[in-house]
Amino acid sequence: MNSERCTAARNVMPLVLLAFVSGCGDASGEDAPQRAAVSGTVTFNGQPLPEGLVRFVPIDGTPGPKTAVPVSQGRFQVEAEHGPVVGTHRIEIQSTDDGGYAMDDEDAIRRLRESGVKRIEAIRIPPAYNTRSTLKETVTAEGNNEFQFDLNSARRR
After folding, report:
1. What is each CA distance from 126 to 54, 136, 156, in whole angstroms?
2. Which PROSITE patterns does the entry link to (predicted)?
3. Contact yes or no for 38/147 (Cβ under 8 A)
4. Which of 34, 37, 39, 146 lies in disulfide reach of 80, CB 3.0 to 4.6 Å?
5. Are 62 and 88 in contact (CB under 8 A)?
6. Please, which pLDDT band fits residue 55 given cuts at 50, 70 and 90?
7. Who wins on pLDDT, 107 or 145?
8. Strand partners, 151
9. What angle do CA 58, 123, 121 make, to 5 degrees?
10. pLDDT, tens digit, 9 for 90 and up, residues 11-53
11. How many helices (H) and strands (E) does the chain have?
12. Mean pLDDT of 75-100
């Protein structure tokens, strides 16, 4: 009786595995939203943003997930495979510049105090460019998706 169950399980397992694997696929099928390569520049008060993120958040019926693209020395670029979906996006820009020190790095904080540094200069992007951003861009399937974002600390809302 036990061997009958083992035989039945051996016969059923390949079918279960086949059903599972056939349900798993990549997102490159016809139902997946089309993505596009994007690139560009980000300046803050006229200077290249040292490091940060540009988020493309789909709006106005554009399907798909939001996409974050890293900024380094004022430039960002991502290939189509990992780029934002084609359509209209709200743009959120965030600085990831922590002044070179993690706030939980006690040794670094101690060294700063000993050296007489009073304050670490970290770039703070106003909410008008991130959490409350009204910036919009359209990503196209064909053509140049190069964007220029010139941010200013005077813009608060």
Report:
1. 14, 16, 6
2. PROKAR_LIPOPROTEIN
3. yes
4. 37
5. yes
6. very high
7. 145
8. 44
9. 165
10. 545 454 444 444 444 445 567 899 999 999 999 999 999 999 9
11. 2, 8
12. 91
Alpha carbons 75 and 102: distance in angstroms, whole number: 23
Give the integer Cα–Cα distance in Å for 90 and 54: 10
Q: What is the C-alpha separation between 32 and 82, in angstroms, rounded?
A: 13
Letter for the amino acid at 89?
A: H
Max intra-chain CA distance, the chain: 81
- Residue 45, sorted as left (phi over 0), alpha (psi -120 to 50) or beta, turns out to be left
Is the separation of the CB atoms in 125 and 52 below 8 Å?
A: yes
93: helix, coil or strand?
strand
Say which residue the tokens 């770039």 belong to: 123
* Domains recognised in the chain with CATH numbers: 34-151 (2.60.40)
